[in-house]
Amino acid sequence: MTIRVLLADDQAMIRASLRIILEDQPDITVVAEAGDGVEAIEQAHRTRPDVCLVDIQMPRLDGIEVARALADAPPRVVMVTTFDLDEYVYGALRCGAAGFVLKDAGPSLLVEAVRAAYSGDALISPTITLRLLRHLADRGARAEARMPAQPLTARETEIVQAIARGRTNQEIADELFISLSTVKGYVSGIMAKLGVRSRVKIVAWAWESRMTGTGQRPQTSGTSIGGMT
Questions:
Q1: In b/e form, how buried is each residue of 43-62, taking b as 16+ CB within 10 angstroms?
Q2: Distances from the Cα of 205 to the Cαs of 34, 54, 102, 197, 211, in angstroms?
Q3: What is the pTM of this model?
Q4: Is it the case that residue 13 has pLDDT exceeding 90?
Q5: Eight-class DSSP state of 206
Q6: C-beta neighbour count of 115 within 10 angstroms
């Protein structure tokens, strides 16, 4: 099945480069382009792509507003940014974006991000994840995490931390010596407990809960932050 993609970036040369990279793949086709946020939303509703690659900084409406407007629509939004310390990334994450990649991350990562979004997964560049967390932590801008509906198990906590470090499902399976289908089952269960609909929002929750696994350890006295066991 062909993955239908919309490209939204205010620079025509960037859109042309992205189109060449994506359409070099047999399973991906670019169905529309947009030069600003308003046009991106209009084109998304008109052409109904599977995935939207959206630049964070655009005229009229930025990528965050595009992600918010399309949060309940069929296309999955993958944010593309030039800045690996872009503070807007966290806002887009909370709006339901399905992934983050840097423009200079290379063709293979870009293609992988599109395929991951299409399959209901998400790819977050480890560079973006780690530097964003460090940047926001330095600013002391942490929010309070909502408690999960049910406590997370120790294994679920491990998987949350791995997701927050930008690991894919396959990488998590390899690291924990479990099957890919088992990882997917855990991720679905975690989403249900946290009341979120994407693994990117798991990252937001992990950051708010200080569960990122990047040198910060959860509190443990019977239960940890968020009622985790």
A1: bbeeeebbbbbbbbebeebb
A2: 31, 23, 22, 12, 8
A3: 0.63
A4: yes
A5: H
A6: 16
Alpha helices in the chain (DSSP H): 12-23, 37-47, 63-69, 88-94, 107-118, 126-138, 154-164, 169-176, 180-194, 199-208
The DSSP annotation for 90-110 comes to: HHHHHTT--EEEETTS-HHHH
Calpha distance 204→210 (Å, rounded): 10
**Structural contact between residues 100 and 78, judged by C-beta atoms closer than 8 angstroms:** yes
Decide: 3 and 31 in contact? Cβ < 8 Å. no
Contact status, residue 44 vs residue 6, Cβ threshold 8 Å: yes
Q: What are the structure tokens assigned to 16, written together?
A: 């042309």
The Cα–Cα gap between 178 and 150 comes to 23
Q: Mean per-residue pLDDT for 205-221?
A: 55
State the Cα–Cα distance between residues 203 and 68, nearest whole angstrom.
17
Residues whose CB falls within 8 Å of the CB of residue 72, separated by 6 or more in sequence, listed in order: none
55 vs 137: CA distance, rounded Å: 24
Q: What is the per-residue pLDDT across 89-140, written as a single tens digit (0 to 9) for each?
A: 666 667 777 777 887 777 888 888 898 888 877 666 666 655 555 554 554 4
Task: Give the DSSP letter of residue 4.
Answer: E
